[in-house]
Amino acid sequence: MTIAFSPATPVRSLYQQQLTQKPIRPKPLFCFQDKFRTSGNVVSWSASANYVTLRVGARRLQPLVRLSRGKRRGIVRCATIEEIEAEKSSIEKDVKERMEKTVETVRSNFNSIRTGRASPAMLDKIEVDYYGTPVSLKSIAQISTPDASSLLVQPYDKSSLKAIEKAIVSSNVGMTPNNDGEVIRLAVPQLTSDRRKELSKIVSKQAEEGKVAIRNIRRDALKAYEKLEKEKKLSEDNVKDLSSDLQKVTDEYMKKIDTVFKQKEKELLTV
């Protein structure tokens, strides 16, 4: 049922009519929470069976109306436009941050796969048992590329050379470390055609996993928007517009994953 309100009608003059012959004090149609003052006149009202937009002076409110039958009173819980915008911004920010991290994870996984050319990133995932504590190799050693087919690992603490050598051997990176007591040298072997194709499949699978993660982030955001709609903080049209914007962001990050995948695939298949 739609209720028409006059702009000149004070809030306190809205009452629920009682179908009775007995003189009885009228009950209020709406009860406001959050210390909302109703002594002033309402500038504008728009209302339907379960949603009301209220403006008092320069302040605009989006109240959630919960009206029930029987002995329970109707309640209007107000949420300001600023609060709603803050919730929307928070969802959008979380989406972009999570999608950006997903792309970086995919890129990091790609970097750890050797392509026949030496790169320090090939040793990114190696962890060393350093005095009983597992630490990343790059945090305790400088890794460089003297040429396109070799890596040089120079530890900050020479006593860690043995531990670094052991970690490289057990990491299955496909390279044999040469420890001369000062540094560790690694020769990057050339990939065979079959190995390149095999690695290309692995990279393709990792790219697809990244896309699945992006779609899951989109799904979570849609659920958050639908929750705001159920709470009557967003209209159905608002959710449609936000969903459309969310799809554009999703497509953007899908393209980023495709870009890094194609670049890595090209490196793998180039002899």
Concise account of the structure shown:
The protein is α+β, with helices and mostly antiparallel strands and 271 residues long. It has helices spanning 81-111, 137-140, 161-170, 193-230, 236-269, and strands spanning 15-16, 27-28, 44-47, 52-56, 59-66, 75-80, 127-130, 133-136, 141-147, 150-155, 177-179, 184-187.
Distance from N terminus to C terminus (CA atoms, Å) equals 73 Å
Helix content: 40-55%
Strand order of the largest sheet: 3-4-5-6
Radius of gyration (CA) equals 32 Å
Protein name: Ribosome-recycling factor, chloroplastic
InterPro entries: Ribosome_recyc_fac, Ribosome_recyc_fac_dom, RRF_sf
Pfam family, one: RRF
Keywords: Coiled coil, Protein biosynthesis
Would you write up a description of this structure?
Keywords: Coiled coil, Protein biosynthesis. It comes from Datura stramonium. This is Ribosome-recycling factor, chloroplastic. InterPro entries: Ribosome_recyc_fac, Ribosome_recyc_fac_dom, RRF_sf. With 271 residues, the protein is α+β, with helices and mostly antiparallel strands. Helices cover 43% and strands 20% of the residues. Strands 3-4-5-6 form a 4-stranded antiparallel beta sheet. A 4-stranded antiparallel beta sheet has the order 9-10-12-11. The protein starts with 14 loop residues before the first strand and ends with a helix.
